[in-house]
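Teaching assistant here, posting this on the class forum so everyone can see the example we discussed in section. The complex has two components, and the goal was to see what a joint structure prediction looks like when all of them are supplied at once.
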Amino acid sequence: MSRRSLPGLFSNQVWAIAKNTFRESVRSRVFYILLAFAVSLLVFSYVLGFLAAGVIRKMVLDVGLSTIAYFSALTAIFVGIGLVYQEVEKKTIYNILSKPVSRTRFILGRYLGLLLVLLVNLAAMVAVLSAVLFFVEGFTSRILAAASCIFLELMVLTAVAVFFSSVASPVVSALCTAAFYVIGHTSSALPELLLPAVESPLARKVILALYHLLPDLNLLSINNLVAHDIPVAPGFYPKAVAYTLLLVGLLLVASALSFERRDLV
Amino acid sequence: MKRVAAVLLLLALASAVGSLHTGLAEIRASYPTEFRSYYIPQSAYLKVASMGQRNLWADLIFLWGVQYFDRYGKDVRTAYLYHTFDVLTDLDPRFYEAYIFGFLFLSLDQAWKDLYRLADKGLSANPQNWLLAWDAGTYAFFQARDYDRAARYFQIAHDRNPGETLVQDMLANAYKYRGDYEASRAFWLRIRDQFEGDDSFRGRFYRMAAERNLFDLHIKIDLKALEGAVARYRQERGAFPPRLLDLVRAGYLQALPADPDGDPYLYDPATGKVSCSKPFHYKGEYGQW
């Protein structure tokens, strides 16, 4: 990775690649299929709520926020996995790298482009959820806070997808990114399930150490709090943003390092 | 020709699948109900499987539980009912409606112990919520007729929402039915004082209820004291007192109590039974109990 200052990294070239990635991704059929499914489910949440008399708002909020979280993650995985690999496979990367664009900037541009796609996707789904909530007279502006936290998770997931895409084929990338997502959402069960069953202090320490080594994406979610109108604990947002930025930074540096060393011939 | 053959083959296959489906469904329907019962994994596993969206899974189990409550035989349903609501409230401990529906279904099956378990769980997970305690208390009071339990739940509801007269009313009734007359009297006195001079319908309603219950409690407290004195008299002297006044003369009572209208209580020296000529059951102006 060449030595540059952080603002220098975000040059016009990076934005040009990001814009191009955005245009490319929104032409993808996968993107629209996933978005259509998500929108259908969001609208269907009204029917589910109607089935459970008296619980309609909670039902729409739970189904809506979960749909947004699941489908945004799927979009990040399926659109993100081919971002770098396909450029290499189709050899279109040579056109870019033949210009004065570093590989690090290329990775950064691809990452920001996909984030832009996910942001638009998220905004569309939040708009539909808001409309359904208005319809059931249960709108709360806190879904914007929940969506922001989902976006933090997407920032991490996209960085993971870009990392794997820069070192492996789309199938392997998809499997590894999906595995990261599953581990990220189940690691919190490790201490929850195992600690009550283990008595040895050493084993307990090992379990806790393992938990802290694994990513915990549930830490970023506030969906359950929003559904029950429970306030978020003070200090959550700055810590969540810092956690996300550090993880993203770590993954992007790793992506850039591995991509810099990769033989593209 | 090939295309026609392919279509015919498809139709034949579809028809075979349809007939097998029907056959298998008939076989399943022939099993006793306990073999057709549903299966919901332990909440610990569902928490992991939900991948951070526990509320969604709780909602889906709730919807399923509400829609299909009547589908299974009572024996299977009752055995599994608590588990269903236990799992979904493990996934979403603040799911208020799940507790309310759980109470309703468990009460229909008269599964009181399970209802109390679910209520205790809900009250512990929702420390601000008084309606859960109120709801559980009404099931314990009106249906299970477990007045100790009812008093406990109404007391929790009262502690969480002291200004709610309906809770004070039920708490006073639960105390009365479990025999704690002094505690009940204290609540009715409080209700009467609270609505003193209030000429609204609600004010007159509660004032009247308080007056009638205070009237009844006056009698109950007196009868309890008289019956206790008669029992002690008989234990120490081997016979019932000839008259109630003998209880005062022999030092078992300081004074002879009278009913709220000042009339003496009725006494049968042959059986030692003390009673009042004015029972509680008269209807008030609004017909309330």
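For the discussion questions: Chain B has two domains: 35-127, 179-289. The first helix of chain B runs from residue 2 to 30. Think about how each of these relates to the inputs above.
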